[in-house]
């Protein structure tokens, strides 16, 4: 059997060591049950595993595909779940599995993903069941969201197998297939692709504008601009006032950097091409332009004049939320979110939505209600804000909630004397790690004021809520702890004091390697300050903020610390000796040394989540203290 064909057939097998599903030959409209076994994968030792999937079909619907999380239930060493196969526009489903708390830790099945292709009643793969897999790799960001890239050899093989099984789909896949050959860059690909373009166009008595556009783009991708322009000239002759002319004019509108001129160009386009297919995207671009130019009054007026098909509800939501969160133009923010809610009620299914529109509308409605609640809350209208929060908060789905939203909801509940009503949601958020420090503090303080309670009991209450989560986090941290000798060091800090490893013997030492020019280093400082403050009264824990790789005068470090007044001890590693000894490959790097003089933890970079950073470092320090 041909090796390429064999590898494709492997993709369609219903069972493997890691992934099995029933029925073995699923059809549209069926619910598929699957079992995932992480043994032997990058997730073999993880307990917090979630599935992510996209449904796929013809290339024309792939841009609609939205990565979605599927609920997994653990059964012994396995994780099981179910997926429904819709009756329209779907030829299969592709999945990956990852650690829900560390999304970059993922099992991508060697970048092939796990596949559930659909079959017809005779058990034959339906059209697009194979080619659609290639479309996931080329027309979606599903693989990229886990930091990986598709195997172009596999992509080409998938397209070729689809065309072999369904030759009549050549008009659907010809340009994608040839584009994959260009990216694959095998020896001799240029003549092969050009021959493919010419062969396809010759087979079409009257090529469409889309086909000529695709041909032009393929020629451009190979640097043959002369032939690309020939295709565009054919398009102009085909329709002198058609899509190409409109495309050029639309491009001129989008590329105009002068805001006044851009508005004039847009208005001229609307007048000349009132029914143009480019108008919806142009209108969305203009909406963005009004916002970026801080013409919020003009933005509201412009949006009010647009038909529903020219309005991006999610864009309006983002704009309104930013205004509300920054506490500016709050009345206008309210108008924008109310406009978006009005549009959503009657809006037909947008072209960029592939799944169930009613379900998607509910998701968007919840987002809009969150923004409305934030807008009302920022205006001091807590009663209406609490009602808005109640309309979309889901106590049964706290695992997928936003800690910041949970915080705002609970604080709003307290302001409106609904603390008891919101208590279950707040408790659940704390239990699953979806509570901010402020929410936990507010819950503890509220609990302490309840009849029969006090501060001591409230502290125990919150600690017990977090107990199971912290145990799970400790188990995960134990898997990443290291055990290396800690090289000796002796540095001078900004005050001229000697900071040495010998003087810190017996203590747990947290070392943060940083420089003033390092943006992520500085961004992590508020979190590091919080972590340090948790142990400020503990004589057996020390934090050192070692300045290294500065590449400039030491006065720059003095000036930075004087301006920001962080309560940090800052040893100077001007020659990078300590950084090199501690295997610092990039900054920021956090290192934790235990009381026995061993390096037990090393982390590079900053994930932008201060609470995660604080909690992880706190747990590591506590675990190492307990080992004494």
From TrEMBL:
Keyword Repressor in record: no
Keyword terms: Isomerase, Signal
Record domain Thioredoxin: where: 480-626
GO molecular function terms listed in the Swiss-Prot or TrEMBL record: isomerase activity
SUPFAM superfamilies per record: Thioredoxin-like
Record bears the keyword Transferase: no
Signal peptide start-end: 1-17
InterPro entries in UniProt: Redoxin, Thioredoxin-like_sf, Thioredoxin_domain, Thioredoxin_ResA/DsbE_sf, TPR-like_helical_dom_sf
Organism superkingdom: Bacteria
Protein name: Thiol-disulfide isomerase/thioredoxin
Organism: Spirosoma utsteinense
